[in-house]
Amino acid sequence: NPELKPESATTTEASLSYIHSKGKVDVNLFFTKLEDGIVRKSFPGRQFKRVNKDAIRTVGLEFSSAINVLKRIRLTGNFTYLNSFAKSMSGSYVDTLEYKPAFVAGLNLDYEITNKLFAVVEFNFVGKEFGLQEGNEYFKKLPEYGLFNARLSYTFNIYKDAELEAYVRANNIFDSLYYTQWSLPEAGRQFFTGISLKF
Fold it and tell me: Is the dihedral angle over the CA atoms 177, 179, 183, 186 positive or is it negative?
C-alpha cells in the first residue's frame, strides 16, 4: 500500500521491584498510544492489505517473580495481561487487533541436582488471541495453548576456568498442535542435543 503513513508511538511505564531473602518480585505497568498504527485488513478474493488505523491503545501489566524454594530448587514465573484495541469509527477503542494475546504466562522450575548436573522444566501459556484467516474478513479466535519443555545438562571442568556443558532438550513434550498465526502450525515435539564451551 503506497499510501501507508509512518507510525508514531507514545509509551509510559511504571515499574516496582521487591527483593527479599528468597528471591525477587517485579511488577510493570505500561501504556502505549500508537498513532497511524499499521494493521492488516482482509478483502474478498483472499486478499490482504496493510492499512493505517487512526489510533491503537495498549494497556498492560507484567508480573514476574523468582523464588528459591529450597537450596537447590528455584521457581520463576511471569504473567502478562495485554489490553490492545484500535479506535473504531465511533471513537471507542473496541476494534480487534491481530495476534495480540490477552494473556501470556510462563513457569520455570530449575533444579540443581548436583554441582554439575542441572534440570529445567518449563511451561508456557498463550490465551485469547485473534487473527485473520485467508478468505475470511472477520477475526477468528486462535486456540489457546500451553507447552511443556525440559532441559538436562552436565558441566565438565576441562581446564582451570574453562567449562564444557553437554545438554539435551525436549520442546513441546506432549506434541501439542498449536498456532501462533492462522494456517501456519508450529513444530510438534522436538529434541535437541549439543555442547557449549565457556572460558
Answer: negative
